[in-house]
Write a structure and sequence with these properties.
473 residues, globular, alpha/beta, six-stranded mixed sheet, 38% helix
């Protein structure tokens, strides 16, 4: 089966497609790509892993392969958040990095996330070249299986590295911990058995704050579910908040790049609401000028905040790599995706769930108001929007007809006149009243995700159903 990179690396089921043999092939191909890109002897590649089954073994095999291909391997030999890897790449001037993670995917998955020298997820042009090299390697006969013993930590071209101190020091430059500490709140934290444990809670505790951490151990099954910090996975975090009288409940996903935030009363604050709120807070508190970036699937509440402050909006395809380019170019204050990805000016071109949670804590502490109170104030200024999404599985017949269906340019859908159509990623219909509907096919399964936004929850439900009918009728 061909190995393909999605929006955030290659992911596959362990022992099915995700095997030691394929890990070696992908590693060799990444090394070959870097060589072809002009990376010479002495260049380094950062390697680490999350808390998934066999993650440390896959990473150790990768490290040996990197060394055998003539590059210096910098091995973070404890489970490490993806944003920490991004910082390490930049801090050490490495040629790139490989993190073994399947992020928020179910526990039977693992993956390899390839980042380039700027710490960003590799862009499509780079991953296409890597895929071509993989295909060539797969066409050749597999070499004999090598010994999978632990990495030789004394080898000259392998360095074991602890990325935590430098990452914590970097957070100190970007988060106003004095403001958070001054409010003296108590927090609950759920790393969902992932790599955020020992990072977000440690950062807060080091400033004298009380944190109750749950699920603070390695469980390769993630409690029998996906390590995704979504509303329906955070009931135990709500219970911890009640026990401790917490100001906020904070959560990160399997590799620490996505965030989940519960307000003081346990209400889940969706990324579509937290992203514009934090954008507004940063523009206010930092005095920053510049734009804001959001993916095509993210709430236009971001646009309304930007308009109220006279700042530009950049819309990108889905995939944080595209927002990362704007961060590298210093064009934006903040970039975010509705799938709980966020980064800010001066940070890395990679989403960072730890940073996002800390910014939420800072906003609550600085403004002396709950997130709900801050959102109500924001709605009073710019208006309220409701965003949501559904997934629709397709029959083979509908799937075959889908490309032609998505080429249509309807004048109206469900009685709503289409003002314009955007095909930057999927097809997005923007209606005359400002509401919108996005149909975006999955690249890996017979599924279309339907996103929509309107000014009321009732209208949102109607719009999502109209999108489903448009797709299937």
């Amino acid at each position: 089966m061909p190995i393909k990179f999605g929006t955030s690396g290659w992911r596959a089921i362990i022992a099915d497609e995700f095997t030691f043999a394929n890990v070696r092939v992908v590693t060799r191909s990444i090394c070959s790509y870097l060589r072809a890109s002009g990376v010479g002897d002495g260049a380094s590649l950062v390697v680490s892993y999350d808390t998934r089954f066999l993650g440390e073994k896959f990473a150790a095999e990768c490290v040996k392969e990197v060394a055998e291909n003539g590059l210096n391997a910098i091995f973070c030999d404890e489970p490490t958040p993806t944003p920490t890897i991004s910082h390490t790449i930049r801090e050490l001037g490495a040629a790139g990095g490989i993190n073994f993670t399947a992020s928020h995917n179910p526990p039977e998955y693992n993956g390899m996330k390839f980042s380039t020298a700027d710490g960003a997820p590799a862009l499509p042009d780079a991953t296409r070249q890597v895929e071509a090299l993989i295909a060539g390697a797969q066409a050749e006969s597999e070499r004999a299986t090598v010994d999978k013993t632990a990495v030789d930590k004394t080898a000259g071209n392998i360095e074991v590295y602890d990325p935590r101190p430098a990452y914590f020091a970097d957070l100190e430059k970007k988060i106003r911990f004095d403001v958070i500490a001054g409010a003296r709140g108590t927090y609950a934290f759920d790393p969902l058995w992932g790599t955020g444990r020992g990072y977000l809670d440690t950062a807060l505790r080091s400033h004298g704050l009380e944190v109750e951490t749950i699920h603070d151990w390695r469980d390769v099954m993630f409690g029998g579910r996906s390590p995704e910090p979504d509303d329906h996975h955070l009931d135990e975090l709500r219970e911890a908040m009640k026990r401790g009288g917490c100001v906020l409940g904070l959560a990160t996903d399997g590799d620490g790049d996505r965030f989940g935030v519960l307000d003081g009363d346990g209400t889940f604050i969706t990324p579509n609401r937290l992203i514009p709120l934090l954008f507004d807070y940063l523009a206010e508190s930092r005095g920053w000028t510049g734009g804001v970036a959001r993916s095509v699937a993210t709430s236009h509440l971001v646009d309304r905040v930007a308009e109220s402050r006279g700042l530009p909006v950049y819309e990108t395809p889905v995939g944080f790599k595209f927002i990362g380019e704007l961060i590298n170019d210093d064009k934006i204050i903040l970039g975010g995706e509705e799938s709980a990805g966020l980064s800010i000016r001066g940070h890395y071109p990679e989403k960072d769930g730890i940073l996002a949670c800390l910014l939420a804590a800072e906003a609550v502490a600085a403004r002396g108001a709950s997130l709900a109170e801050q959102l109500n104030e924001l709605y009073a200024r710019v208006g309220r929007l409701e965003a949501g999404r559904i997934g629709v599985r397709l029959t083979p017949e509908i799937l075959a007809a889908l490309p032609e269906r998505l080429k249509r340019d309807p004048e109206a859908i469900g009685g709503r006149r289409v003002a314009r159509t955007n095909r930057a990623d999927g097809v997005k219909f923007i209606f005359e009243d400002g509401s919108w509907l996005l149909l975006r096919p999955s690249g890996t399964e017979p599924l279309v995700r339907i996103y929509a936004e309107s000014e009321s929850e009732q209208e949102l439900e109607v719009l999502l159903e109209q999108g489903r009918k448009y797709l299937l009728d």
